Every structure is written in structure tokens, then in C-alpha cells.
Predict the structure.
Amino acid sequence: MESIVIKDVLLNERTTSILIENNLISGIGDHVPMPDNAFVIEGKGKAALPSFANMHTHAAMTLLKGMGSDLPLHSWLNDCIWPAEKHLDCEAVYWGVKLACLEMIKSGTTLFNDMYFLLPWAAKAVAEMGIRGILGINVFGDGDELTNEAFLQLRDEVEGAGELLKLSIAPHSIYTVSEKGLVHCAEMSHRYGTLYQIHMSETEKEVQDCLAAHNCRPYELLERTGVLELTESRLVGAHSLYLDAEEIDLMARHHVTATHNPCSNLKLGSGYRFLYSKLREAGVNITLGTDGSASSNNLDMIEAARLMSYLQKGVRQDPTVLPTNELLQVTTENGFKAAGINAGRIEVGKVADLILVDLNNLAFIPMHDTLSGLFYAAHGDAVDTVICNGRIVMHNRHVEGEEEIRTQAFRQARKLRP
Ligand SMILES: [Zn+2]
């Protein structure tokens, strides 16, 4: 792998240079060594930042973007999304995931944590795009089809597709998976050391139904069934909106990662109750996601971060809540931490997943504060260059194969219309 030198780039508000060798950041300073074979990126007029980790997605659903807008949740799913999904074949998933990866790269994301089906085709698409995907096997009911043999075969196919791919286990939710299924998935996650991704406490109704059926709240159900113990430090609870104090305590004790998806929650009218400050005070690892584009309509982490910050400030009537340095941590470092990857900060010894943003973008003119420009003024298109695992996947906003992805996206999407 060739080395990369990013010359004269703004990093933490001062100009410096960054050396990347193999997949690691190996030098930062005014006079970093310049290896003979180094690819030199002119960093003048750009700022270096860690790349984003989008911790809850359904990437292939990007093909469904814009279908059934503004419908009530029930008819959106029954009359629109589920009928369209029946037509999603291997080829559609492959191109849908490519389209999603293209959008993620263009807006500075190098890691996404996904939940869907037809994973081998998704894995091939992610590997070809050069970013990191954690692909979760979607499980419903008792999960009987998730046998050891099935898991191992899928792991070979997904992780064999490329070194940046990981297989995980993703029971859909506590209301679509039985107690037996939840425990079975946890045992498999424990046996194979995978992440356990699940939609949790997304709506008030989910909590009320859980209380009626199990006489406890959703996270208490996971504790009572032994799931939290089996998935210690590997459980990612997407949404985690409607929580009480005991549940937050359980999440902290079992090192659960909470993934907030403000765009999806608001668009689907799930209400807004993300308890950022309480979760942070308890020590829960808080991350951010966009959710699938069928509900969030884009995969732009900058937009999701801004919405999260403004909602927290507005709802709490306190502009000091969730400042930009915490937003950066939530959107980068905390996600990589949940995935067990030593990235998310630009420091010597860290894995080289980073972005350069274009300071000539109007969001940064005039410039008083880079992070304020990034999170409160910019959009994903301010990202100019993306490096994942020490490899350039976008430079000067050019991504290899982009035109074919656009053409195929239209072609595949036509299959989904009734
Ligand atoms: Zn979701």
C-alpha cells in the first residue's frame, strides 16, 4: 500500500502535515518524513477531521427513498415499503448498497452499521466501494433459521468479500422477535463475538405493549432474559428513545451503545425524547445514525448531527447542551469504539479513517471555528476527500464508478414500483 502525505492542512485549528503509512496515521507535524512513493495531497484550504461512523442504517433501502412520503407509519409500511421490498432481489440490493455507499462517501462516512438481508450481495458492493460495513443478519420470530452452519457460511461470504467487512447479528426488535429468538441471537453473538444490533424503545407504544405483555420495560426484558449479560459491550440499541432511569442504569452497567436517529424519528412522527444528557452522565456510549433512507431520506451525518444538536438545545431550552466537540465525539470516535476499531481521532498510531473538508465552501467563509462551520453551517457536500483504512476512496469529490451507480440506481428502482 502506498503512503499518503497530506501537506499543510488545518488540524485542530493549526496548519500541519499528516503522514499515513499502510493503514495508520504514522506522523503529524510541520516536517513529517516524505517517503519516495508517497501520494501527496495538497491540504491548503482544507481541514482534516476524523470520518463519520453511521451506526444505524438499512443501506439497500436507499432505492426506496421518497416512496410513500407523509403517510401514517402503518400504511407507509403495509401499503408502500413492504410491497416494494418484495421486489428487492440480489441485483437490486447490490446496486442499492452501492448507491448508499456512494452517498456515504460523498458526505464523509467510512463506517456504517447495517441491518438487512441478502448480505453476500451487500458485502460485495461495500467491498468494491472501499469503506467499512458491519452487516447484521436480520432475524424475526424465533430465529430458528440462524443455525451455526448458516452463520458460519454467511460469515465466510460476508467477511470473505473484503477485509473491511464484518458480520453481525441483528434481531429486528423486541416486538418482532420472540423471547426465545432474542436469547438465541444473544447466544450466537456471544459465541462468535459479533455486535448485536436491535431497534429498541423507538415509540411509546412499543414500551406500553412490552409492559402489557411482559410486565417490564424493553431494556428490562433484555436484562431478565440474560441478553444484556450475553452481549456485554456488544449491544447496539438503535433509537433508545423511551427510557426510564433504571433502563439507563442497565445500559451503562452492560456497556450498551445507544444509536440516536433524529431524522427518522421526526419524519415518522415517533415523538422526540432522546435523553442525551442523562445517557452521557450515566456513561452510556452514545452514537448517531441516519437510519435507512426510506425513512430518513438521506445518509448525511452532518445533517443528522445538526438536527440532534438543535433538538437537544431546543427541547432543553439550553444552548450549552451538546456542543460541537461532543457532536464530533458522538459522530466519529464513539461509533468506531462500538465497532472495536482503533479510529475516530486524528492521532499518531490511529487507523487512518479521515476526511478533508473544503474550506472554500461558503459554510466556512468567513471562518471563526471549524467545528461550528462543519456542524452548524455545512452539508455533506463540503467533504472533498475521504480516506478509509489508509486508502483514498474519494479525492476532489471524485468517486470511482459513480456514473454507473447512478444509471443502475434508476434501473433497479423501476423494479420496485407496483
Ligand atoms: Zn432502523
User: Anything to note?
Assistant: The two ends are 47 Å apart (CA to CA). The mean pLDDT is 96. The domain at 4-50+345-402 is CATH 2.30.40.10 (Urease, subunit C; domain 1). Residues 56, 58, 199, 238, 291-292 surround zinc ion (CB under 6 Å).
